[in-house]
Amino acid sequence: MTDYLTEPDREPGGDATRSAENAAIDRIRERGESVRDRQVERALSELELSERERDAVERLGDRLVERLLAVPEAQLERAAGDGDDETLAAALKLFSGSR
pTM of the entire structure? Predict the structure, then answer.
């Protein structure tokens, strides 16, 4: 794993901090989408739905992920702008993908 937070010439809101921000947001989004995909597929496999109903369930999953991730993503963007490496490092660790 690349350590985005140890580059010596980094400044608050600089390239290294933005890279860490992007990596953290990507990991959170990947995790959310992975959970959504598994849970939507699980629900769809248990129900006998029309194509229209299946699409509605999938759209619901998409909206839930978008809404649930909006605040953490905004806070990571704010942390990157403030040069808050501790928050970015915590997010990278929390959403590293290991269970």
Answer: 0.72
